[in-house]
From TrEMBL:
It comes from the Bacteria. It comes from [Mycobacterium] kokjensenii. This is NAD(P)H-dependent oxidoreductase. Residues 48-123 form the NADPH-dependent FMN reductase-like domain. Coiled coil: none annotated.
Length: 151
């Protein structure tokens, strides 16, 4: 049975784009079988998208110490419609911020705790331009969350 990994992202900068691409490369590694990866910009994700997924990867810049307005909007739109139906599902998070990402991490912790989601891997938080090490961490994040869905 094929599982679905939903990547909900807000990718407004080249640094966020590089992280997004690395996460996707990990999630779609050929060694990971039976997992379809679906991408949705945070401003267009719907409760139906969230309900159809078996796991989630969330990507956002950390703006002014918080998650992007786009990712916040995604949760505002989807939170109550998915509240009871998605408990126990795995998720991962990658953030890009030049400083003050703690508030963004706390926000995601609070939202995902309320939803009952399970953290499948450590968060990847990058400040400044992502280098080889940071992009490898993004790849690992994508691969780990996708592999957690394999039967």
């Amino acid at each position: 049975m094929t599982k679905t990994l939903l990547v909900v992202h807000h990718t407004p900068s080249p640094h966020c784009q590089a992280m997004f691409e690395a996460v996707l490369a990990g999630a779609t590694d050929p060694q990971i079988e039976g997992v379809d990866v679906v991408r949705r910009p945070a401003l267009s994700v719907s409760p139906a998208d969230m309900l159809a997924a078996d796991g989630y990867l969330l990507g956002s810049p950390a703006n002014l110490g918080y998650i992007s307005g786009a990712l916040k909007h995604a949760f505002d739109v989807c939170y109550y419609p998915i509240l009871d139906a998605t408990r126990g599902r795995p998720f991962g998070l990658y953030l890009h911020g030049n400083e003050g990402t703690e508030g963004a991490e706390r926000a995601v912790d609070g939202i995902t705790t309320g939803l009952g989601w399970v953290k499948a891997a450590g968060y990847v938080v990058v400040s400044g331009r992502p280098g080889k090490t940071e992009l490898e961490a993004c790849w690992e994040l994508g691969a780990t969350v996708a592999a957690s869905l394999m039967d």
